[in-house]
Design goal:
Structural class: mainly alpha
Largest sheet: 2 strands, antiparallel
Strand order of the largest sheet: 1-2
Order of helices and strands: EEHHHEHHE
Shape: globular
Radius of gyration: 20 Å
Length: about 240
């Protein structure tokens, strides 16, 4: 059974259109084909440059213009950066997919996270008075799903005896980059919250997402056999000299 509105040609690109028998079982916990909780995008990008930002301002979703160095812009700009790094991690993952089919589940999770990050950015790009009930945003369900996935992955991993150094494999390192950029986005949003209240669940979601990237990095190293690089303080130059 293919999702409503899908065609056979789309199966390789949109996992919502995959027959359920091809989906990893955990994905079925959050994938609900046919439900539209949020409005679909309504835009037509016929020309990319407009020159309207040449004086250092940009427009919010409601049309208001604010400076590009405003904390609101810095917040969703950093989330956009995180989305790009998540895409890089997916590209790294797909290079290992043939050798490690178990990574297909993580690819679907990362794809969903990219959509959620766009939802988060949409809400931040809109002033509170302009938000409407069906506007895309992150919710408690998104936070809970990250927790479910972390718990399931973490249950298969050995206990940590030291901190993990980013590395081990390209995919694990990319996921650590996602983790650190996510932490930076969270810090910027916390600073923004001192001035005005961000949309609900945004800080909570980013806090949980950075933990998810950490667990995903460990899980990817585990299933690919790449191993982890652990912090050893006595390997520092100062510790090896008399």
């Amino acid at each position: 059974m293919i999702g409503h509105g899908c065609s056979g040609a789309s199966l390789s690109f949109d996992f919502r259109c995959w027959p359920s028998r091809y989906l990893p079982k955990p994905a079925l916990q959050w994938l609900r084909v046919g439900e539209n909780k949020f409005n679909e995008p309504r835009l037509a990008l016929n020309r990319i440059y407009t020159r309207s930002g040449d004086q250092g301002t940009t427009a919010l979703a409601g049309g208001q213009r604010i400076r590009k160095d405003d904390l609101r812009i810095e917040s969703y700009g950093t989330i956009d950066e995180l989305n790009a790094f998540t895409g890089v991690a997916r590209a790294s993952l797909n290079e290992s997919l043939a050798a490690t089919p178990e990574l297909a589940e993580l690819d679907m999770i990362l794809a969903r996270i990219q959509h959620e990050l766009f939802n988060l950015g949409s809400a931040l790009a809109t002033l509170p008075g302009d938000l409407h009930p069906k506007q895309a945003r992150v919710t408690e369900d998104d936070v809970r799903q990250l927790e479910i996935e972390m718990d399931r992955m973490n249950a298969t991993l050995p206990a940590l005896r030291s901190f993990v150094l980013p590395g081990g494999s390209r995919l694990s390192a990319d996921l650590h980059v996602c983790r650190t950029v996510c932490r930076r986005a969270e810090r910027i949003l916390v600073a923004f919250s001192e001035r005005e209240q961000p949309p609900e669940q945004t800080i909570e979601y980013l806090n949980r997402l950075s933990d998810a990237f950490f667990v995903q990095s460990r899980w990817a190293a585990h299933v690919t056999g790449a191993g982890e690089v652990l912090w050893q303080p006595n390997l520092a130059a100062s510790a090896t000299r008399e």
